[in-house]
Prior knowledge:
globular, binds calcium ion
Amino acid sequence: MSYPQPSRCLSCALLSTVLVLGAASAHAAGSGSARIDLSDSSSVAPLPTDPPIQPGERGSTLQFIYDDGSIESAHGVFRIPQYDRSVAGVYLNRFPVGHPLKVDSISIFWPPPVANVAPGLELMLVAYYDADIDGNPANAVRLGSDVHVTVGAQGEWSTYPVDFDVPAAGDLYVGFVNLWARVPNGVALPLQYPGSADSDNPHCQSYMAYQSNPLMLVDYDDIGANAVIEVLHDPDTMGVEDFMIRATGQALPGDDLFTNGFDNLIACTISG
Length: 272
Ligand SMILES: [Ca+2]
Ligand SMILES: [Ca+2]
Ligand SMILES: [Ca+2]
C-alpha cells in the first residue's frame, strides 16, 4: 500500500504563524505536525463556497462552520525525526462569539481510510473560552466536563451531543483530543492523520496544540501548558486550511436577538 507523501512542519516553530510557548526548543527532535494531501480522494462534492454565516434569533440553532464539506487534506502529530509514531494533540476551531451560548453538538468529519484513523478509537470532545479574544488559546479556560466518544465512519461526518456553556462574548474553541494516542511516545505505525481539513475559502481559525517532547502527554485542560500551538496558516507546511470541525449552539435564556457573533473574526491573510 502506498501513502500520500506528507509535508512536514519541521520549521514551523520558527514561523510567525506559529505560536510556540514555554521553554521548548524548535522541532529539531521531538514531535512535529504533518499533513497529507487528500484533494483527489474527496468523496463529497464541493460546494461553491462555505455555507453563509447567518444571524440567528433566540431559539434558533446557531451554526459554526468553516468548511464546505469536501476534504482536501488531513493533519497529524508525529514523533520526529524518526517519523514513526503518532502523538496525541488537541485539534481546534476558533469561533469568536458575541454573546453567551450553549454549544449542544460537535461534528467531526473523519478522514478516509488512507489517514489510518479507525472507527471505534476513543477521543474526547473539548471546548474552551478565551475572554481576551486574541487568537491565542494559551490562556483559554476549558468548558464543561469530559465527553468521551469514539471515531465514527471514515469519510463521513459524526455528530456528537455536548453541553458546553459559553459564559460571555469571547473566543469559543471547539474540537477534540485523540486520546487513543495520548500515551508516552504515542502509538506505532501506520501514521494517523485525524485532523480532516478543508482548503476552500480558508478562515485561518484552526489550531493544533501538542507537546514537543513525545514522552510528555498533551495537556487538554490547559492549552498553554503545551509546548506548541500551531495555526493552519502556512502554505508551505501546514497549508492554509480549516479543520472540518463544526458545532451548533443555542442562545442562552434571556438573550434577545442573537447573532453568531463573528464580528471579531480576524482577516485571513495568505502569505508566501
Ligand atoms: Ca473553508
Ligand atoms: Ca473543500
Ligand atoms: Ca487568549
